[in-house]
Amino acid sequence: MAFRVRAKVQGRPGTRVVIEEGTIFEVADLSSSSPQTLRVLNTQVFTLSSGAPTYFDVDTECLNPSRPSPSKTPMRATPFVRP
Amino acid sequence: MKCYLTLIHASDWEERLGEVSPLLSSHGLRRTDLSFGESLTYESTKNTVEAEILVRHFLVWLDSVVASSDRGVPPWSILVTNRRLASERSPRDLPRWALAEFFNSVLLEEEALARLAHVDPNLAHHFELNRDLQLYVYKWTPRQGQRHERADGEEPTEVAFEDFSNDPGSEPQKTTVSAKGFQHLVSLAKSAYRGLRIDSSRGLGGVNALVLLSGELNHLRRGTEPEGPFALFNLSALRLRYSADPDSLANSVTSGKLEVLQITAEPGNKDEEEEGDGFSSSR
Known about the structure:
heterodimer, A: mainly beta, 5-stranded antiparallel beta sheet, two-stranded antiparallel ribbon, 0% helix, globular, B: alpha+beta, Alpha-Beta Plaits, 7-stranded mixed beta sheet, 9 helices, elongated
């Protein structure tokens, strides 16, 4: 089952953002009811068309099968990739 | 400090230049007239270039090039110094033969190394002084180029806490700590995972992921907190590497191009119409 990561970001118009396959998102709070680590399934490239706050969504998979699935769970971006 | 970056003898240099150009320009680098043979040299336009950030970003990118190369060495080099290459040498200039000397490597002036050591001790540990050049040279090892060829399932080596390496090029390792719940474990993990290239001041994370992924290898049962011996695994053991794309989400945040306001996760529903104005996307 795929899980959706929704990120609200802001930057200058024209900023290009690459969410590569394997990118890791972590749960912001380990005491959350659904502490989970997520891995992006497919590479996606976004280009900001305005300077206003913008949303993008990516499909992910859970890497912690022993933990509950996320449900509107606050997450954080990490610099890690698992190919 | 001035920063000179020289690209040498890369057969696919046009393609690579397209990849690395945004990184160079974001750090204020521009082409100079110090081209030599098949090399291209860039220099910073500011004396106050944040050398350690450039080196870290460049090494992350270079690391991916090395990992994908057959030879296990980079086709590019980087030199961070306040000296320049010159045909008519002054005591402070670098000789032209230095170009050949730093082919396939990364060289830092002592000041740049000190700044790098402050933010990333593990990375700085790989530099050794070249007495002829009076510059610190990055020591590439075959293992760095071959680590992705390692068979999955290789048993990580148990090491002492102080020997635990977070260099993604290191061998798979684990170190065992005594945990009293997640909160206690995270405080231990922050020490064990010292030197990670994570800009937490900009909202980036990583330690929670490392703890939870280690938890899977500890066979932590669903709904339980870690109590007692708990093995923390390093990046290599967890099959993780740093994102090498300068436009990646994390690197864009680190470089200040992008600010993340909020991230949430929930079960996916592909049929749902998304709130997606303000950007264009492609796969």
